[in-house]
Amino acid sequence: MLQFKWAKSSDSERICQIIRVSFQKQAEELGITPEKYPNFVAFETAERVQSRMNQGDKAIMLFLKDKPIGTISYSVDKESWKGTIKRLAVIPEYRGNGYGQLLTNYAEGALKEHPVTCIELSIVAQFKGLKEYYQSLGYAVRESKRFATLPFEVLFMEKKIKGEMSGNTKFL
Q1: Of 105, 119, 121, whose CA–CA distance to 155 is shortest?
Q2: How many domains does the chain have?
Q3: Residue pLDDT, tens place only, 144-162
Q4: Most-buried pick from 128, 148, 161, 164 (CB within 10 A)?
Q5: Is residue 143 in some structural domain?
Q6: Residue 163 CB partners (closer than 8 Å, separation 6+)
């Protein structure tokens, strides 16, 4: 049985572990180490999870038979009314079952409770399969950027929202 739950402060360590396990292969493929790039997502800390939550990020956890298998977080910029999806993570052995899309859809539904005009996210530009995945969910490339603190290009993608406020997203 699948169950979505709002994450609480006490879930920070659990979320951190899901994210670290989920992004470990990316770090290996990119040749990134925690010594050189401690802020890369694969080296997440419970303190950073907690800090984002304290700054207003909402986190959702996905459970399969009471086992946490994925997470996603989002935030809303109330000045621009843009939603941002962050840290989508599904434990590797549970991938390929649509759980990432379920988490994304759930976060999008929660964002549509706000008057957002678009939802944005960012990915490592060289991961073409990930780009195609998000394009299949309706996201389009907005821009790409290089940051001095990262050894790769970051792709920013967005999905325009056309007033489709759902008003019925429920959390357990």
Answers
A1: 121
A2: 1
A3: 999 988 899 999 999 998 7
A4: 161
A5: yes
A6: none
